[in-house]
């Protein structure tokens, strides 16, 4: 909580650039520049890739946004975020009033920065004594004239799948195919786990005929199709990133174990309890020696959503060993 004397009001927030605006986010070094609009009413933060203009430019903030507010090389410079300073109070906030900062949802560069989980922006704040423009004061934060805000990616994957595969079963049987919604359990920035899906008790009649748990709308929209609250439209399995712990050693998945992404739908018309998500499924088939003991797969997926795309961390998916029926006596 920021406590100020009642006589200091009309707070104005702006972007604070350090190191001449040069900062590395993810695997890319950017140069940031700030444009002021309307005497502090708005501030826009722009970014260009360092060296993108030739002859190692830009290398400092004024080579991105000039002192007069001109955007340099607009074709290679993108608006990343905007601060709007509105000190009026309205009861229907955030629709109106209050100071706010917003990332630019149209910027692919802003989306990339957000999804690296390395995006941090610095903000400076000043105000006026008794609303007198001649009595400007700077707000300090533990001795600094700025504070740093860490941006959190809105969604991420859990570290373990909710269901796994079973070795040695026929296609369409339990454990042969899994819904991507089961293999890639998701949670949002508050730790809310996306609702899990299951077929209705009367059995599926079409894709989307299912029941969902809490926060199901984070996955799907009102029509039970992709594009829910967080705008997830596609989840792609990355087979070349797959590993396993066969024989107790973490290694690439052997060629005899085939993992394949398949289209959305139900795994089998005869298996009414096997729901598969509108995002598709992943099938498992072992063309080699039957597993004598349980193993784990370590899989990755690429998620496309409202704020761009990201590759999940490794997700652990268990595989149960082949069950061999006892011989009849």
Short overview:
This protein is mainly beta.
Description of the molecule:
With 329 residues, this protein is mainly beta. The protein folds into 2 domains: 8-150, no CATH class; 156-320, no CATH class. The protein is 4% helix and 35% strand. The chain is built from 2 helices and 24 strands. The protein has helices at 108-116, 180-183; strands at residues 8-15, 22-25, 28-37, 42-49, 78-84, 100-103, 120-129, 136-139, 147-150, 155-157, 165-166, 177-179, 186-188, 197-199, 210-212, 234-237, 243-244, 251-252, 257-262, 281-286, 295-299, 301-305, 308-311, 315-320. The strands form 7 sheets. Strands 2-3-4-5-6 form a 5-stranded antiparallel sheet. It has a 5-stranded mixed sheet with strand order 11-24-21-17-18, with no helix packed on it. Strands 1, 7, 8 and 9 form a 4-stranded antiparallel sheet that branches.
């Amino acid at each position: 909580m920021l406590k100020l004397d009642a006589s200091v009001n009309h707070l104005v927030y702006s972007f604070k650039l350090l190191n001449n605006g040069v900062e590395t986010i993810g695997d890319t070094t950017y140069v940031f520049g700030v444009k002021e609009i309307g005497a502090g009413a708005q501030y826009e933060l722009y970014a260009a890739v360092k060296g993108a203009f030739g002859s190692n430019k830009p290398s400092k903030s004024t080579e991105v946004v000039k002192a007069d507010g001109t955007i340099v090389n607009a074709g290679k410079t993108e608006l990343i975020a905007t601060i709007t300073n509105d000190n009026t109070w309205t009861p229907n906030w955030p629709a109106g009033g209050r100071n706010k900062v917003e990332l630019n949802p149209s910027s692919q560069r802003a989306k990339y920065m957000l999804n690296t989980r390395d995006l941090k922006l610095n903000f400076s704040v000043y105000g006026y004594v008794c609303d007198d423009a001649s009595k400007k004061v700077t707000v300090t934060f533990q001795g600094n004239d700025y504070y740093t805000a860490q941006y959190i990616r809105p969604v991420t994957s859990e570290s373990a799948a909710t269901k796994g595969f079973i070795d040695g079963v026929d296609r369409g049987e339990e454990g042969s195919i899994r819904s991507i919604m089961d293999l890639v359990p998701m949670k949002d920035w508050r730790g809310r786990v996306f609702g899990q899906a299951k077929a209705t008790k009367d059995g599926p009649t079409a894709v989307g005929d299912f029941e969902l748990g809490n926060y199901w709308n984070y996955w799907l929209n009102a029509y039970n199709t992709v594009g829910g609250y967080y705008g997830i439209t596609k989840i792609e399995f990355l087979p070349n990133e797959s590993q396993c712990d066969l024989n107790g050693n973490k290694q690439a998945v052997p060629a005899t174990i085939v993992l394949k992404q398949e289209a959305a739908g139900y795994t089998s018309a005869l298996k009414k309890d096997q729901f598969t998500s509108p995002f598709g499924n992943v099938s498992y088939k072992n063309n080699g020696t039957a597993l004598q003991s349980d193993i784990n797969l370590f899989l990755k997926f690429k998620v496309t959503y409202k704020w761009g795309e990201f590759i999940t961390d490794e997700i652990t998916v268990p595989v149960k060993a082949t069950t061999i029926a006892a011989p009849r006596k």
